[in-house]
Amino acid sequence: MPSEYHQYRRRFSSIDLCNKAMYKWKAIAAHVPQDLSGWEVLDVGCNAGFYSIELARRGAHVTAVDIDPHYLDQARWAAQQFGVQDALTFKQMPIYALAHAPETYDLVWFMGVFYHLRYPTLALDILRRKTRKLMMFQTLTMPGEYVSSPPENLPINARDQMQDSGWPKMAFIEHRLADDPTNWWAPNHACVEALLRASGFRVRARPDHECYLCKPHGVAHEHHEEELRAAVNLWPD
């Protein structure tokens, strides 16, 4: 491996985090276009920049956002080591603030963030409006792959069907998971697919466990749009 990569690893807040990102990248890289020249990419929760740098090395211009300035400093340093600093724009901002920005992107990279958010479905709705071609999505999940087919309209006295193992459901973590107080949610596989559909995405491929490559599909219901506009107005520009 090149020496700058070892320097990059030393600047990560956790070697384990770097190893996980590298492991994931090896599994999903083949599902991302090899030539991203001319593509605008949004990396949400870029952390120390591992994915941002890999996407920039394929020719993309990457807007990398995170709420933690420490991670952004690491990512800037790493981008310089790989010589792709001119292909990256770094912004410190919460994901919800993206609703006030006019830019859209060919590829949205949304990995390892969803389950840390207090308002995860709002984030998905916002990113749907930012995605032109593809979104790579990853989240912590509950065990289980079975997917049932819920009816279009469930009678109120038939709610026992929700206990079916394949019913879309998401566990709420009140305290801690893996010593992390920001691990709030763990959807099952059926719920991930349902959430993506409800936000206007369709799953194109599953490159790895808990990873979903999605394409924009469909439009939201009128009342859904009204609720989204009301919600994003809670956050200032």
Description of the structure:
This protein is of the alpha/beta class. The protein is 31% helix and 20% strand. The relative contact order is 0.13. The N and C termini lie far apart (42 Å). Strand 2 (61-66), helix 4 (69-81) and strand 3 form a beta-alpha-beta unit. It has a single domain (35-142, 161-232), classed as Rossmann fold (3-Layer(aba) Sandwich). It has helices at residues 3-11, 15-28, 50-57, 69-81, 120-128, 189-198, 222-232; strands at residues 40-44, 61-66, 88-92, 105-111, 131-138, 170-172, 185-187, 201-205, 211-216. The strands form 2 sheets. A 7-stranded mixed β-sheet has the order 3-2-1-4-5-9-8, with helices on both faces. The protein has a two-stranded antiparallel ribbon with strand order 6-7.
Concise summary:
The chain is of the alpha/beta class and 237 residues long. Helices cover 31% and strands 20% of the residues. The chain has a seven-stranded mixed beta sheet with strand order 3-2-1-4-5-9-8, with helices on both faces. The protein has a two-stranded antiparallel ribbon with strand order 6-7.
What characteristics describe this protein?
single chain; 237 residues; alpha/beta; Rossmann fold; seven-stranded mixed β-sheet; two-stranded antiparallel sheet; 7 helices; 31% helix; globular; disordered N terminus
Detail the topology: elements first, then pairings:
Layout: H1 3-11, H2 15-28, E1 40-44, H3 50-57, E2 61-66, H4 69-81, E3 88-92, E4 105-111, H5 120-128, E5 131-138, E6 170-172, E7 185-187, H6 189-198, E8 201-205, E9 211-216, H7 222-232
Parallel strand pairs: 1-2, 1-4, 2-3, 4-5
Antiparallel strand pairs: 5-9, 6-7, 8-9
